[in-house]
Amino acid sequence: MTRLAEPTLRPPFANYIDGEWRPSIEADVYEKRNPTHPHEVVGEFPASEKSDVDAAIAAASTSFRAWSATPISRRAAILQRAAELIEARAETIAMDMTLEMGKPLRESRIEAKRAAQTFRFFAGQAWSPSGEIYEQSGGGAVYTMRRQLGVVGLITPWNFPAAIPAWKIAPALIYGNAVAIKVAQDAPLTGLHLGKCLVDAGIPPGVLNIVIGRGSEAGHALVRHRDVAAISFTGSVAVGEQVRNVATAQGKRVQLELGGQNPLIVLADADLDRAVEAAFAGAFLSAGQKCTATRRIYVEDRIYKPFKQRLVARIENSVVGDPTDPATEVGPLVNEHQVEHVLDGIQRGRSEGGTIVTGGERIGAATYFIAPTLFEDVADAAFLSCEEVFGPVATLYRCTDLDDALVRANAVRFGLSAAIFTSSLASVRRFVQEIRAGIVHVNSQTPGADVHVPFGGIKGSGYGPHEQGRAALEFYTDVITVYEDT
Ligand code: NAD
User: Fold this and answer.
1) Which backbone phi and psi does 217 adopt, to 5 degrees?
2) pLDDT confidence of 122, banded at 50, 70, 90?
3) For tag attachment on the chain, is the N or C end more exposed, with fewer CB atoms within 10 Å?
4) Could you give the angle at which helices 163-174 and 72-88 cross, rounded to 10 degrees?
5) Residue whose CA is closest, atom 4 of ligand 1?
6) From ligand 1's centre to the CA of 237, what distance in Å?
7) Cα 234 from Cα 248, distance rounded (Å)
8) Beta-bridge partners for 394
9) What residues are annotated to the active site?
């Protein structure tokens, strides 16, 4: 068994429901393995089912009234304390994250600290105005206020197991909702760490409930439950669309954060070294398992050759290996299923005429490592150019100029993140105006998001209000307009 970082959480690992750590009511446990050493078991976790979700929602429903009536300063104090605990335990959380899902420790550390920042930011939102006051046209006052929704259901993926649960739980709680969250089966321990920080910070029983289990069982039950007012989902397009259809048919509010096929444009006037580093980091850190990872790199003809040369050198000098080593840049994929998905994508890239410039294979027979892979000569309509392959695979394209790059960058159904490298202000302005993505980077890599500003995709990459920053208020509250006469 993998030795966990210890000592804030100990086995047996359980759901957290109604203020208690509980095993599944009816279901058994499953083994979560370490993707770096797949024979090692990280821990056993409940493979929860509908009855566990029902218990979580019943607890949340019961606690909601008292929580929503709790003074906001008290709610903020709990979030603030949770932030301090996450920060104090960041090293433990980061190491366990790395052990359970393979993210290199250097990135897990950043993510754990960012979860603390998120809780701190939303604690601060307690003091922000949430309504507006006017005069009624006929005299008297009319004002808007925000009201919490009730029980919210949160569903999160494995690839950001601290950041994404944090940026859903923190706003849900500060605005007075009760929470039932289904964390990802492939990264349950990190979610439990966050839960433990909130428990130790004094979250009242029933206000936060954490269920671990399969999406098709526990996730589906959460989406369908009639006492859940809203669903915030982050994950793949296929599952997200299913979730939206079920939830909206029941009149629930739905927020989806889905996949991406994110372009980076490098113009001839760019700082080449910075652009190469951003292309490498954007495409290959976390083994490309980021929704905002760079998948398509459009390089202006004039600099294509030197750019390619330098990028290939950067890739071939990258540190691929054990993610617990702080020097490692590229670790394993999360599980065998993802390895097969990525190898299949590489095969499709080849069979559709693409040329592999570097990488392209699994490293060792029984591991989850895939060499950082760069393609070229892939047609714009090919699978690799249009669909999300969730791993360390990116493609280089020659473009004639910004016009050409913009048309091709926008020609996919996704619209999550996009970046440009250029020193021309005019090119920046056009890019920002015309690129169809929810997150736009100028002279920085496609991944990367601050906690105090909105985050979310457009087109096929998202649905409903964005997350984070003040945008979270839109999703987790209703606007009420009050006409007040004396
Ligand atoms: P996934 O869609 O397989 O699973 C996401 C979550 O949904 C998991 O908790 C899963 O158990 C649950 N789920 C699965 N089936 C369900 C169902 N029928 N009903 C309810 N819940 C169900 O995604 P994943 O493999 O965990 O994550 C990778 C995907 O997430 C990639 O496509 C990536 O781009 C996307 N992602 C998007 C963002 C974003 O903010 N846009 C961030 C991170 C990841």
Assistant:
1) -100, -75
2) very high
3) C
4) 160
5) 235
6) 8
7) 16
8) 374
9) 257, 291
Q: Are strands 262-266 and 294-300 parallel, antiparallel or unpaired?
A: parallel
Bin 305: left if φ > 0, else alpha if -120 < ψ < 50, else beta.
Answer: alpha
Buried b (16+ CB within 10 A) or exposed e, 123-150: bebbeeebeeeeeeeeeeebeeebebbb
Phi, psi of 88 (to 5 degrees): -65, -30
- The closest-lying atom of ligand 1 relative to the alpha carbon of residue 455 is 40
Cα distance between the two ends of the chain: 69
Question: Smallest Cα–Cα separation from 221: which of 182, 179, 178, 248?
Answer: 182
Atom 18, ligand 1: which residue's CA is nearest?
216
Cβ burial, residue 484 (10 Å; 0-12/13-18/19+): exposed
- Tens digits of per-residue pLDDT, 188-201? 999 999 999 999 99
Query: Ligand 1: which residue has its CA nearest to atom 42?
Result: 291
Q: Which of 62, 414, 42 is nearest to 192 (CA)?
A: 42
What is the value of pTM for the model shown? 0.97
Reference 240, options 47, 463, 57; nearest CA is: 463
Q: Where are the alpha helices (H) located in 250-388, listed in sequence order?
A: 272-284, 304-316, 336-351, 383-386
Instruction: Say how many Å lie between the CA of residue 248 and the centre of ligand 1.
Output: 18
Ligand 1 touching residue 244 (CB < 6 A): no
* Residue pointed to by tokens 């990488």: 359
Residues with Cβ within 8 Å of residue 140, at least 6 apart in sequence:
483, 484, 485, 486
Compute the Cα dihedral for 331, 447, 310, 107 and give only its sign. Answer: negative
Q: Is the pLDDT of residue 258 over 90?
A: yes
